[in-house]
Structure prediction request, 486 residues.
Amino acid sequence: MKRFLPILLLSIVLFHGAFAQVRLGIVGGIQSDNVIERNSIPGWDTSTKKYYSSHSGVQLGVIAEIPLDRKGYFYFQPGIHYSSKGRQYLKYNDSVTADNTDTVYFKQTLNLGYIQVPLNLTVKLPLSKNHRNSFFISAGPYVSFFYSGSVTNERLMETTLPKFLSEKEPVTVGKGPDTYKTVEMGLNGKAGFELGNVMLSFYYSRGLTSFYTASYSGSFYHNLTGATLGIWLVSKQLPAAVPKDTDKDGIPDDQDLCPLQPGTLKYHGCPVPDTDHDGIDDEHDSCKTIPGVARYNGCPVPDTDRDGIDDEHDSCKTVPGLARYNGCPIPDRDGDGVNDEEDKCPDTPGTVENQGCPVVEKKEIRQDVVEKINYSAKYILFMSGSDRLLEGSTGALEDLATLLKANPASHLTINGYTDNSGTPSMNLVLSQKRADAVKAWLVRNGIEENRLTSTGFGQEKPIADNRTQKGRAANRRVELSLSMEK
Prediction:
């Protein structure tokens, strides 16, 4: 460990010679170490802890300063110091205890010496324009290497003549009970004033690792406070004044026509112009007055068919089309000249006049069929006040089913009516049930349900006088209508 100090000193000196802004200084001061001990010994705080006190020591070493910015506010300050640490135990015995132990008082002093390497970051707040006077705050980690150590025991013995005994023994370093560790780490901070080449500061440091292994379970940490005086061996070399360059484009503000915008010397500190404001400067823009994109050298994406959809998004680049079809025309799947959006039969060729559908000749129902339907309707009868078909209706219904089967493309509309007996609402329900009854009979007898429509109209549209029994019978009816379309 004794070889470490000159090697580090030589490294700092060489480092100082390599960088003109690095300074080297000497620091020294006094300090007080109050060892923090934690253990689980019963009653230790009241029986033993009160007899421990702090240890006074010194700190002496060198410090380097390396600037971290051009304005002189932030620094890295490594160093190497010799630091004496330890603690003291002193107990005076009362007369009874002294008589029993033959000891008037017992004093034990632990003296430890370390080579300490702090690695601090420092902030300086100038107190003068030339930055030679400042208030500073510094903090960082440190590493301490064990250098030397001893324990001194002093006793005053109660004999015929008082006798003073003093013994000094070196401490043991290594591993195992009652040994001191070779390396200790912690944090330190300091604050003070720098006046020219002189530094005055107060500092505090706290160990983060236990420096001692006792014969019992416990931990031991150095806890130091102190004051130092330092002297820089060379004066601070302030950074040369740098012309103000607000936009950081390398052109000083007093020569920059656009001091708030980075630019080029060719344009006197202003950016290269961008006439069409497309983000591509005129020196790289092949279409300076038309906004474009970089991959086309500042020109717009081409639109070969001039349909308003650029070629990068146009699936039919040479044929004008619409955006919803990716630049292609509206499709015409059946090729009848009517596009699919206007074609009501897009998969079947048709005519423009028929909205893209083929022309279908309208089929008419033969007159004789119509007459047979009307004839059958007259003989479809119901019980009074009921939707039950009378037995005499069967023949008419069978004839009707036969006509429907013979005309498979036809559609039958069944309208039910009643006389005015009862309330209109009841008659409306009854007429619907009668129309549904006819429909149900036909479905049961082989007619497709989708060819039949049944509707009740109640007592509306009478065809005879409801004041007579004959007229009411005539009004209780169904009307049939046959068509070729639904």
Notes: The longest helix spans residues 424-444.
